[in-house]
Design a protein that fits this description.
This protein has 17 helices and 7 strands. With about 450 residues, it is of the alpha/beta class. It has 3 domains: about 80 residues; about 180 residues, no CATH class; about 170 residues, TPP-binding domain (Rossmann fold). It has a 7-stranded parallel sheet with strand order 1-7-6-5-2-3-4. This is NAD(P) transhydrogenase subunit beta.
Length: about 450
């Protein structure tokens, strides 16, 4: 066994051990460091392979990557974490696609390579390109550079996508059959790029958490395929870990929304927050004040906090923790209800609350907390919209009908912290806001929570 193989085994062990650490906030930071150390070992092992190439170019690439990546990661706000994940994931897919192109050129169109090398390389090129360009569109939607609403070609959307896929596959088949014209691999990359763009554009903001997971899985699969073509064990193992974990997460997220993955890919619903709802006739809302909200919660036996993207935007997690500490000092039991798709990426709320040092045992997943709402005196909803909408249970005509939600409406009273009456990512009004037991506290979430906290101190 060579030194390179030994180092690869060490790297794989660190990957797996680091991944195990990501199962909880207490060990997540350590898990990240361990996995990063594993990647460092894998890079060193790869550089030790004989004939690796021009060291100056390799060092230049490492320096440029570090100069761009480290400051970007350090400066990114927690609200922009989904965008960063989408962008960094897409870069991985794009790198794989470029490596496949280079391999095509260096091997004269795979003229002297085994058939599996050509097939794996072309698969990596197609999937990596789809992932790169799809991730750029996801980034644009999350960053609000592009509209969050679905953008598509109507009934022609799926035929166009199938035509692009067929064209990319035709280019790949021609290359495997012996054609060596470089225009074929360029055509494959261009067609798959267009496919990535046109697959993600029609997907609305409500489905974005699933899209991020799916693209992450595709990047992993493309890396594993490229590792097979290059006979690089590190790429195969790391790619399969990413692909498998991304696939599992995608499936879990789709189930949490009660939507199939093909339905999401075929065109999602929602658009990143709609216009203000009409409030007239029987559809009126009841307002409350910070003082009244503080009194309600101070004399409650149990309070459940329901965080959403509005909490992330306002960076209100630390204020929420301070408010909860005051309530607990008065003997009030405080828990946090976490919906799997709250926010803009899987685990978004968990990360924010962990940043504020909220005890992990107070964070309750949807299945665990839903039975508690009927025994809860006050549920305080901070910027969560679609995941608390009772229409998902009661209105068959609603686009979110059938999606599992947090049973906030079963609480004795509900306080909703929100800037206004705009809709959520699904683009539908929330029936919870018009419930007689619901009171709206309008304003910036952080400021509102801070006001409630001050009122609690004065009681």
């Amino acid at each position: 066994m060579t030194a390179v193989q030994i180092l690869y085994i060490v790297a794989f062990a660190l990957f797996v051990y680091g991944l195990m650490g990501l199962t909880g906030p207490r060990t997540a930071v350590r898990g990240n460091w361990i996995a990063a150390a594993g990647m460092g070992v894998a890079v060193i092992a790869t550089l030790m392979i004989p004939g690796m190439g021009n060291w100056w170019l390799i060092l230049l690439g490492l320096a440029i990557g570090a100069a761009v990546g480290v400051p970007s990661a350090r400066r990114v706000k927690m609200t922009a974490m989904p965008q960063m994940v989408a962008l960094f994931n897409g870069v991985g897919g794009g790198a794989v696609a470029l490596i496949a192109w280079v391999e095509f050129r260096q091997s004269d169109g795979f003229a002297h390579e085994a058939a599996y090398v050509a097939v794996a390389s072309l698969f990596a090129a197609l999937v990596g390109s789809v992932s790169f360009w799809g991730s750029l569109i996801a980034f644009g939607k999350l960053q609000e550079i592009l509209p969050g609403r679905p953008i598509g070609a109507g009934r022609l959307q799926q035929p166009i996508n199938l035509l692009l896929l067929a064209g990319g596959l035709a280019c790949g088949i021609a290359i495997v059959a012996g054609a060596s014209a470089e225009l074929l691999v360029i055509g494959l990359l261009v067609l798959s790029a267009a496919l990535g763009v046109l697959v993600v554009l029609p997907i609305g903001g409500a489905d974005m958490p699933v899209v991020i997971s799916l693209l992450n899985a595709l990047t992993g699969l493309s890396a594993a395929a490229m590792g097979l073509a290059l006979d690089n064990t590190a790429l195969i193992v790391a790619g399969m870990i990413v692909g498998a974990s991304g696939t599992i997460l995608t499936n879990l997220m789709a189930k949490a929304m009660n939507r199939s993955i093909p339905a999401i890919v075929a065109g999602g619903f929602g658009g990143g927050g709609g216009p203000a709802a009409e409030v007239d006739g029987d559809r009126t809302v009841r307002r409350t004040s910070a003082a009244d909200a503080a009194v309600q919660m101070a004399y409650a036996n149990q309070v459940i906090v329901v965080p959403g993207y509005g909490m992330a935007v306002a960076q209100a997690q630390h204020a929420v923790r301070e408010m909860a500490d005051l309530l607990e000092a008065r003997g009030v039991a405080v828990y946090y209800a976490i919906h799997p798709v709250a926010g803009r990426m899987p685990g978004h709320m968990n990360v924010l609350l962990a940043e504020a040092d909220v005890p992990y045992d107070r964070l309750k997943e949807m299945d665990e907390i839903n039975g508690e709402f009927a025994r809860t005196d006050v549920a305080i909803v901070i910027g969560a919209n679609d995941v608390t909408n009772p229409a998902a249970r009661t209105d068959p005509s609603s686009p979110i009908y059938g999606m599992p939600i947090l049973n906030v409406d079963e609480s004795r009273s509900v306080i909703v912290l929100k800037r206004g009456m705009a809709t959520g990512f699904a683009g539908v009004d929330n029936a919870l806001y018009f419930d007689p037991r619901t009171a709206m506290l309008f304003g910036d979430a952080k400021a509102s929570v801070s006001d409630v906290t001050e009122e609690l101190k004065n009681l």
